[in-house]
Design a protein that fits this description.
By secondary structure, this protein is an alpha/beta fold. The radius of gyration is 22 Å and the shape is elongated. It is about 40% helix and about 15% strand. The protein has two domains: about 10-130 and about 295-340, 3-Layer(aba) Sandwich (Rossmann fold); about 135-295, Rossmann fold. The protein starts with 9 loop residues before the first helix and ends in an 11-residue tail after the last helix. It is built from twelve helices and twelve strands. Mean pLDDT is about 95; it is low at about 1-30. It has a six-stranded parallel beta sheet with strand order 2-1-3-4-5-11, with helices on both faces. Strands 7-6-8-9 form a four-stranded parallel beta sheet, sandwiched between helices. Strands 10-12 form a two-stranded antiparallel sheet. It binds beta-D-glucopyranose. Beta-D-glucopyranose binds near residues 44, 46, 120, 175 and 295.
């Protein structure tokens, strides 16, 4: 049996012993607590914003935050989490580099009674994960596939059949195999692409259609560029590729660099993405990358900070809205899921600028 993980303030115990608080009686706010936040890398803009936003929000609630970035190194992240436990953290928020590599520090946390919230990426293979905050990851994949189909003309934006008969040549990329999200994105995308592949309206000339064959370790753009180079030189000597399913903007830019080096442009195949990173939004505006998926990480950070606050008070976070889909190999982790938004040249201004996520200047 693992030790109890919730730090229940004394007042809550008293309330439990004496029944509900009398009208007008205040439930005590948690004392200022140290919260350990670990993020995978500073090389991607989204994780920088996620970390800063969570920190700011928790600090505004009076907590102290130790924010660490592991630069995509598993051993570094293990040390960082262990260090936060030793420093007396009362709660851990973890966006993992490798979702299955933290079972040891998670056990340490459980033994010290420290609750854990998996942030964006599910922590796998451990019972010692209390909650999960993320986006509708399967839907992200569906949106990526739908924008690929729309860009090719096989589908209209309203979902009706598009004007183009096909067939089109496409290639598939997935994220890092050690990130639980990658399979969600890929499976979501394939659920929308498979009927077209079965009807031969879409053809994957490389023959690489299985998840394991198309993953990109650590979501690295350079790794994706090399794989695209290889595919172009082996499968596309005499024909053109028309579209590429890309799961993340950093990978999309790697794919576009390969396409440019191999003679494509000024018109490019339809390349998808994710995260609405500045360079990719600029690329969309310039007519190179076709689309991205916007996930308002400000909202995810705020929701996670509120969840953290509830957990520090010994309560179940009221935000939870999915109790079924995130099985981590040991348990189903109760999750809070936010909605992603598909973005292309037609709606980037409304979605990204008018919402205040970016200014026009940032996208110039
Ligand atoms: C996140 C994506 C991100 C990717 C690469 C995934 O776990 O959900 O938003 O694009 O990691 O950093």
């Amino acid at each position: 049996m693992r030790s109890p993980k919730f730090v229940v303030p004394v007042i809550a115990l008293l309330v439990a012993a004496c029944g509900a608080p009398a009208a007008g009686q205040q439930v005590k706010q948690p004392e200022s607590a140290l919260v350990g936040v670990t993020m995978p890398t500073t090389t991607s803009q989204r994780w920088l914003s996620d970390g800063e936003n969570i920190k700011r929000d928790l600090e505004s609630r009076g907590h102290k935050v130790d924010l660490q970035y592991a630069e995509n190194d598993v051993a570094t992240q293990i040390k960082q989490v262990q260090g936060q436990i030793s420093a007396g953290a009362k709660l851990l928020i973890i966006a993992s580099v490798d979702g299955s590599a933290l079972t040891q520090p998670l056990l340490m946390a459980a033994e010290a009674g420290i609750p854990v919230i998996a942030y964006d990426r599910l922590l796998r293979g451990s019972p010692n994960v209390d909650f999960y905050a993320t986006f509708e990851n399967f839907r992200v994949g569906i949106y990526q596939a739908e924008s690929l189909l729309t860009g090719l003309g096989l589908r209209n934006p309203d979902g009706s059949p598009g004007p183009a008969p096909g067939p089109f040549n496409i290639e598939l990329f997935a994220g890092s195999a050690d990130d639980n999200n990658s399979a969600f994105f890929f499976n979501g995308a394939m659920s929308a692409l498979k009927p077209y592949i079965d009807e031969k309206k879409l053809v994957v000339r490389s023959g690489q259609t299985e998840f394991q064959a198309v993953t990109t370790l650590r979501w690295d753009g350079e790794t994706a560029r090399k794989r695209m180079d290889e595919i172009l030189t082996t499968a596309y000597r005499r024909i053109k590729v028309n579209g590429v399913l890309s799961p993340y903007d950093g990978i999309s830019l790697g794919i576009l660099a390969s396409l440019k080096a191999n003679g494509y442009g000024p018109a490019y195949p339809v390349v998808t993405g994710q995260d609405a990173e500045v360079d990719s939004v600029k690329s969309i505006i310039a007519g190179e990358q076709y689309s991205t998926i916007y996930k308002d990480t400000r909202e995810l950070a705020t929701a996670t900070a509120s969840m953290a606050e509830a957990v520090l008070k010994g309560r179940t976070p009221p935000q939870l809205n999915n109790l079924n889909d995130y099985e981590n190999g040991v348990k189903i982790v109760p999750a809070f899921l936010l909605n992603p938004v598909s973005v292309d040249k037609s709606n980037y201004h409304k979605v990204l600028v008018e919402s205040g996520y970016y200014t026009d200047e940032q996208l110039r």
